[in-house]
Design brief:
The complex is a heterodimer of chains A (141) and B (253). Chain A has 141 residues and is mostly helical. Helix content of chain A is 43%, strand content 4%. Chain A has one domain: Cytochrome C3. With 253 residues, chain B is α+β, with helices and mostly antiparallel strands. A three-stranded mixed sheet of chain B has the order 10-3-11. Chain B has a two-stranded antiparallel ribbon with strand order 1-2. In chain B, a hairpin with a 6-residue loop joins strand 6 and strand 7. Chain B is globular, with a radius of gyration of 22 Å. Classes of the chains: A mainly alpha (141), B alpha+beta (253). At the A-B interface, helix 6 of A face strand 5 of B.
Chain lengths: 141, 253
């Protein structure tokens, strides 16, 4: 009984191996590798203004959710990284009024920006963890 | 609960929870559970943690021995760990980099593979009604003020830096200040702000998400009173089992 369980776990691990490889390269579950020209920068965008620290991942929105670049650029967000943070109205109040992220995160298209705060607000701790992970990745390479 | 009780309970039909006697309800309440329903053909009782159970540390009316009874309510799920509160505290109270008067902790619950649900938890001195740190101080350098209820090091010249209070504190709210050679801790900004006429602490004033609500629990018109006495509000405190009777409450409203 036990040996069967162990064998099946081993078999499952073997089966999952190609998938986890794809995930290493930032690809999706179907094994498609992440292409920055199609899906945008692979490294997450982290805003530290007006508050620390808010994460945005292109992969989640393009490769996973199926949006194209034109869905957000250049109407909601300028192409250059961090441009939104320089605007005075890059605030939750503006987002609740449908600007920036609030264009989709309105509660009907997808979940409302006034719920699930810590999904994007990773905070100072989350940012530090992300930087540590990236530094470790850099050392591994 | 004996076998007979169990049999009788199993015999109850679906959603006939009114048939559960008052005595049994009370027994469950004592354990910190409330009865919400009877499911699965009456064989399983559904129990949830009792809201506002005294065991969880919710404040009891008449249990506020000070006036003002300084209290902080933390609206936990709104915290985004921007740490503006920490920055304001450091600036206002001259806290060194190796210590803190308040900080943010993080709980991460694993969801599906590689995904987490994060909750940030601001912590600070709970200004307990029965402060374990005060009881252990061998030189009476620290005590709980008789009018404000604020726990402070009121006679730092008496502090010998033995750190016994640091060990006794259930909330890890004290640190040793190397420069002053004494223990330092949150005093609800009494020295830096409240004594100068300000109405709130630096951390509460700095919070952009309205997480930290500071006020007087003895005043029914105060926001902290209203937050803690709103019906159906789940209120919890940290480490209620220590019996310290803390004055920092956590809610998700």
């Amino acid at each position: 009984m036990r040996i069967w369980l162990e064998m099946s776990i081993f078999a499952m691990a073997l089966l999952l191996q190609p998938l986890s490889h794809a995930a290493d390269k930032g690809g999706n579950q179907a094994g498609e590798p992440y292409d920055e020209d199609t899906y945008g920068p692979q490294a997450p965008t982290v805003w530290v203004k007006p508050v620390k620290s808010v994460i945005f991942e292109h992969r989640v929105h393009t490769m996973d959710a199926g949006l194209d670049c034109g869905s957000c650029h250049d109407d909601l967000f300028e192409m250059s990284s961090g441009a939104a943070a320089e605007k005075d109205d890059f605030t939750m109040a503006a987002i609740y009024k449908g600007k920036y992220c609030g264009s989709c995160h309105d509660g009907s298209t997808v979940y409302n920006a006034n719920t699930r705060c810590t999904t994007c607000h990773i905070g100072v701790r989350g940012h530090q963890r992300l930087e540590r992970a990236q530094a470790e990745k850099g050392r591994a390479k | 609960m004996n076998d007979k009780d169990v049999q009788r309970r199993e015999a109850l039909g679906t959603d006939r929870r009114q048939e559960i006697s008052l005595l049994e309800r009370r027994a469950l309440l004592k354990l910190g559970f409330a009865i919400t329903g009877v499911f699965l053909g009456g064989s399983v009782l559904s129990l949830v943690s009792e809201r506002r159970a005294d065991a969880a540390g919710a404040p009891a009316i008449g249990g506020y021995p000070y006036n003002p009874h300084y209290t902080m309510v933390i609206r936990e799920r709104h915290c985004i760990d921007c740490e503006l509160c920490k920055e304001a505290c450091v600036k206002t109270n001259g806290v060194p980099a190796y210590g803190y008067r308040t900080t943010i902790l993080e709980k991460r619950r694993a969801l599906e593979e590689g995904k987490f649900e994060t909750t940030f938890m601001p912590v600070l001195c709970n200004h307990c009604n029965k402060p374990p740190c005060v009881r252990v101080c061998p030189t009476t350098a620290t005590w709980k003020d008789k009018t404000t209820g604020i726990v402070g090091i009121y006679r730092p010249s008496l502090c010998i830096g033995c750190k016994t209070c640091m060990t006794a504190c259930p909330y890890n709210a004290r640190y040793f200040n190397e420069e002053r050679r004494t223990i330092d801790k949150c005093d609800f900004c009494f020295a830096s702000r409240l004594s100068k006429g300000e109405k709130t602490t630096a951390c509460a004033a700095a919070c952009p998400a309205d997480v930290r609500v500071f006020g007087n629990l003895a005043d029914p018109g105060d926001r902290v009173y209203r937050l803690l006495h709103a019906p159906e509000t789940m209120i919890w405190v940290l480490r209620p089992e220590t019996g310290a009777v803390p004055n920092v409450f956590y809610v998700n409203t």
